[in-house]
Amino acid sequence: MAAARSAHVTNALTSHCESVLLCSGEGTGRSKVKGWQDGCSRAACAAAAVEQRLALSAGGGVSGSAGTMAPARLLLTGSRGWPRLLGPQRELLVQGLQGSRRGLGGSQVGQRGLQALGPRRGLGGSQVGQRGLQALGPQRGFGGSQVGQRGLQALGPQRGLGGSQVGQRGLQVLGPQRGLLGPQRELPLQGLSRGFAKVAKTRSSREVKEVEDSAPVFQYVGERSKRKERVFVWGFCHAGALGIPSFVKPDAGWKKGRRIQPTPYRLDTAVKISSAACGYGFTLISSKTTDITKVWGMGLNKDSQLGFQRSRKDQTKGYEYVLEPSPIPLPLDTPQETRILQVSCGRAHSLILTDKEGVFSMGNNSYGQCGRKVTEGEIYSESHLIHRLQKFEGRVVQIVCGQDHSLFRTERGEVYSCGWGADGQTGLGHYNITSVPTKLGGDIAGVNIVQVATYGDTCLAVSDEGDLFGWGNSEYMQLASITETTQVNVPRHLPFKIGKIKDAACGGTGNAVVNEEGNVFVWGYGILGKGPNLMETATPELIPPTLFGLSDFSPDTRVFRIRCGLSQFAALNNRGELFVWGKNIRGCLGIGRMEDQYFPWRVTIPGEVVDVACGVDHMVTLVKSFI
């Protein structure tokens, strides 16, 4: 039976692999079995070699040329023809494929070698992995060992010595080593290639301080570095109002153009921008620089609201669409001494305020909104006309554009207006067109006005004592608290009991104010910021301060500035955070989605927001970088 099994194993070796079985002992004979590699795995080779070894063990040895030899060492031929050692000489125990033989543990032939699953003659189980032999249990009192990719690893005590590990670089002692270390033999030491390291000692506070002082310091921002002023834009960009040409006409870096930019996008500017305004499809930005160029425009220019933008192809023609910030030349007497304080945009006209040379207007003047005489049949496209407004009693310190009217506030606290008056938005007591800026009366006569606000056809004014006044359109209950009429043509005091007003804003159908405590109140019609259940109200409604960042961790957070577009609101708190809500026309809220926003939502901007300008379908923010 043993002879039959030996023959069977010999046939298996012949058909699958090449191996060499060397025998040594009392005799000098050698038996050699060869096979051919036919694409089979090394596992088959190992299996065949094991079967041959088992057959020889069962038969009492191998018959060689000089007699019967005792099995001593098993070698496997590697991929380069070099034999691979599987176990120590005379002590290797190989496992049977189905069970134990002579007290040996079962074995398993894997993809790369032989794995022993049980004990073998009191020795630890072994595993032949991808790179070598792994002993899993004790072996004659020695610690288990592991032959890994680079060496031998001992996992337990070995004849009373500490466990050792032969890694890629050297020997590591993991336990005591038979009294060689004296009283410290119980301490774990690490043997290096040149000896043993000393036991680590606790550092004194002085040594720790010296180490900390000598540690490198990484300074990312210079001590004298200043925070950078930046501009971010978003919303409808197909008319060029965002000033990004590649959005309208894709360059090599864009596969297709963009109609909408739903999140803040940085607009590169060469100078610090101090003021920005959004009109109906166009934008103005300005700087307080003393350079010749102080104002830039971008977007729709069909009525020359951005001035005459000369064509590069034909010097006599002008652009009706400006895709990037383009300089607007102003007729200044002393350009290097005059600074721009503010810009404002209406539906198709623009106002520019300077510190020394008054107010300039340009664009459509069909209703006298530019503060000059209306000319019948005037063509506004490709116009070179920029008008300087004069005859104010005192210096103008604030300008505001409505849809087709304009407001001016002087340093004396007086308010002037001109333009379309059909809804009473000029506040002059009539509903006619006014082409010359005229001072308002009514309830604001003799009152020091510190702010005026308008964007649609409703106007608000705030006094130095925190009182609120209003006039203009009231079709959406903007002024319903004082009258049931839908047009109010003179300023009226609004007797709201909401504290002293610090800032006010007017939209197309809704109004908003901020009191001295930083609370935001809204009224009118539309998405007012208190959810879908509040769509109209004639009295101011408080928006919960927690929606603007107030919490137990930020108890000092306050809103200090409020802005309105035609149908959206924007609020700034004292932490430089911007919150928006309202109609999200063409992504004008900048919140990354197209749905309307019924509650204040924080806009993600990489910096501290300083100011914001709202248009019909786009917005511009002035931002100060964090570092």
Tell me about this structure.
This is RCC1-like G exchanging factor-like protein. The structure is a single chain. The longest helix is centred in the N-terminal third of the chain and has 18 residues, at 42-59. Helix 1 runs antiparallel to helix 2 (42-59). It is globular and about 95 Å long. The strands form 14 sheets. It has a 4-stranded antiparallel beta sheet, with no helix packed on it. Strands 18-19-20-21 form a 4-stranded antiparallel beta sheet, with no helix packed on it. It has a 4-stranded antiparallel beta sheet with strand order 22-23-24-25, with no helix packed on it. By secondary structure, the protein is mainly beta. Strand 34 and strand 35 form a beta hairpin. The chain has a domain at 229-624: Methylamine Dehydrogenase, Chain H, CATH 2.130.10.30. The protein starts with a helix and ends with a strand. The protein contains 4 helices and 43 strands. Helix content is 7%, strand content 35%.
